[in-house]
Backbone:
């Protein structure tokens, strides 16, 4: 498989959404009524999900829907499917019966902030590595041929397999007063997931200018660096933004999964595992960290959208000839 | 135009110094990936363009007219032969910004305003901001877009975008303007208006122009000389001087003049001579 074929395959697969998002991101910024409408639709979607949940809980059989001995729809007992009201209500009760226990929402927020911090470090590292690889591959065709298959291959390694390795290697690092902390292992794994969509998206973006534009730059007698800053980087923005968003989502997922695999305390990942164990006596409890994970994802995506607002100028539609 | 009978080597360089473009024995062969299929895009091209002269290259698709323009612009290198621009090699001329270029697609950068697009070459070559601003205002007036400097390319019509592209090509006051079917994507009415504009602009800037087109009336209307090319391999079929007056005298009335129609017919005859001959050769080869 040639590199260009691989690129297409990757496009069609993991980041097949990029062209659609590119189209979306070139829309004019939303104003007033349009913004409210979009926001309202989003809220409506969440509400709909809650309604479907409650409807099934009310109408579905208590033992779930079983087809040929396989449960295709879950049981509707309070243990398996707590009421939405209970899940939300649980947020305002203390985490545990201990005297000094924090209210649940505060504990979840703390854990979310912790995970978000680790994910941010991972995302930034992923952006740096992803951009660097994209630039390298854009500049040297041999680098593309040499690196691209490995970049694709890197994502087929299961996270669970590398997490303990990263932890063990990290534990051996000690340079002067610098010591490798477990959260760094988590951030490293987050960046390992995040760099992939960024490098692919950035490469596509850097290669997106027309021959026309490239030749114009050539006719000006300017070098690769000037062409990079004046043409390739600005032109890559519509590709880069969705890639950054995908990277942010990957970093969040990577952080939460790696927290579990490495056993790092303080974040959402660990909280999910701990609270799941309590589900027997307190069925609404495991949903609190899930809300936290959603929140972290939303904040991450929102941050990237904010970057997009600042780069609005570079997202104007292509010039119709 | 000027005599090319001087001795080769030293003579070619000194003789060419007075010419805007001097092309001697240029051919361009494209080789397929595995080296088995070769296409001769250009074969034995000799052409000289004087300073301030407007020369059109016309011919059917595949006659190598765009390739020839790209060779002059040093966007591609000839397989054999020599190209000199104001006595310099094509590469040196490109690096010295001896020419401005405009393509069929306006090729404006969508994230830059009209003024910033025109400014681009000036900015890339380190001109101070104040100077850039003055020059951009001047160019916007020249192409009749004085009020559009702060607009963005997607807010302009195709004709306006092409004007911006021409202004950008003229930004550094080049003595040579290379244009590859710049009006090819425009409708007929816009096209004629742009041709009138171009004649005026060339009169004001005194730049030599090499203009690729596949429209006979366009070539005749604009040019001092029309170079008719034939395909497979790309050769110069004939060069027709069009004596329709200096740029100042070329107006809308010219399109109705007898001399205009005569020149159009002559170009057409030259053009149509080519495919018949090529077809006959094709039959013989079988």
Residues:
């Amino acid at each position: 498989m040639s590199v260009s074929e691989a690129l297409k395959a990757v496009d069609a697969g993991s980041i097949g959404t990029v062209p659609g998002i590119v189209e979306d991101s070139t829309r004019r910024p939303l104003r007033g009524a349009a913004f409210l409408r979009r926001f309202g639709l989003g809220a409506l979607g969440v509400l709909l999900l809650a309604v479907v949940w409650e409807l099934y809980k009310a109408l579905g059989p208590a033992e779930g829907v079983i087809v040929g001995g396989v449960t295709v729809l879950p049981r509707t007992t309070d243990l398996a499917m707590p009421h939405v009201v209970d899940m939300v209500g649980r947020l305002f009760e203390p985490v545990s019966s201990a005297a000094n226990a924090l209210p649940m929402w505060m504990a979840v927020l703390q854990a979310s902030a912790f995970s978000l911090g680790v994910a941010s470090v991972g995302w930034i590292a992923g952006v740096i590595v992803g951009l660097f690889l994209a630039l390298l591959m854009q500049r040297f065709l041999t680098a593309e041929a040499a690196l691209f298959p490995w970049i694709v291959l890197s994502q087929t390694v299961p996270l669970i397999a590398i997490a303990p390795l990263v932890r063990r290697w990290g534990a051996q690092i000690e340079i002067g007063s610098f010591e490798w902390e477990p959260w760094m292992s988590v951030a490293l794994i987050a960046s390992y997931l995040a760099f992939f969509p960024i490098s692919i998206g950035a490469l596509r973006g850097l290669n997106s200018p027309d021959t026309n534009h490239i030749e114009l730059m050539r006719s000006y007698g300017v070098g690769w660096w000037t062409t990079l800053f004046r043409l390739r980087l600005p032109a890559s923005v519509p590709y880069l933004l969705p890639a950054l968003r995908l990277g942010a989502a990957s970093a969040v997922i990577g952080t939460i999964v790696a927290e579990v695999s490495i056993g790092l305390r303080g974040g959402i990942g660990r909280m999910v595992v701990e609270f799941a164990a309590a589900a027997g006596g307190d069925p609404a409890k495991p949903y609190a960290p899930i809300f936290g994970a959603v929140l972290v994802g939303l904040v991450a995506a929102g941050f990237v959208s904010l970057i997009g607002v600042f780069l609005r100028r570079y997202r104007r539609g292509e010039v119709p000839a | 135009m000027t005599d090319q009978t001087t001795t080769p080597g030293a003579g070619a360089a000194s003789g060419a110094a007075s010419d805007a473009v001097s092309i001697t024995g240029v051919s361009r062969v494209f080789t397929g990936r595995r080296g088995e299929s070769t296409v001769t895009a250009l074969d034995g091209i000799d052409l000289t363009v004087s300073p301030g002269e407007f020369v059109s290259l016309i011919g059917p698709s595949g006659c190598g007219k765009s390739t020839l323009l790209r060779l002059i612009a040093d966007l591609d290198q000839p397989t054999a032969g020599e190209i000199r621009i104001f006595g310099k090699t094509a590469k040196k001329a490109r690096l010295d910004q001896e020419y401005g270029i405009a393509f069929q697609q306006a090729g404006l950068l969508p994230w830059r305003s009209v003024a910033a697009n025109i400014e681009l070459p000036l900015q890339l070559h380190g001109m101070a901001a104040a100077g850039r601003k003055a020059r951009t205002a001047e160019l916007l007036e020249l192409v009749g877009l004085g009020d559009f400097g702060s607009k963005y390319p997607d807010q302009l019509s195709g004709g306006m975008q092409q004007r911006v592209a021409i202004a950008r090509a003229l930004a550094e006051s080049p003595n040579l303007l290379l244009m590859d079917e710049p009006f090819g994507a425009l409708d007929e009415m816009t096209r004629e208006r742009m041709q009138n504009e171009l004649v005026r602009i060339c009169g004001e800037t005194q730049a030599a122009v090499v203009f690729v087109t596949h429209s006979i009336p366009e070539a005749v209307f604009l040019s001092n000389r029309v170079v008719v090319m034939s395909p497979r391999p790309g050769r110069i079929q004939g060069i027709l001087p069009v004596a329709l007056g200096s740029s100042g005298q070329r107006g809308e009335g010219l399109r109705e003049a007898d001399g205009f129609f005569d020149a159009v017919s002559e170009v057409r005859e030259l053009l149509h001579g080519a495919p018949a001959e090529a077809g006959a050769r094709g039959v013989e080869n079988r």
User: Anything to note?
Assistant: The mean pLDDT of chain A is 84. Chain A touches chain B at residues 210, 212-213, 215-216, 218-222, 226, 230-231, 234-235, 237, 313-321 (CB under 8 Å). The radius of gyration of chain A is 23 Å. The longest helix of chain A spans residues 224-262.
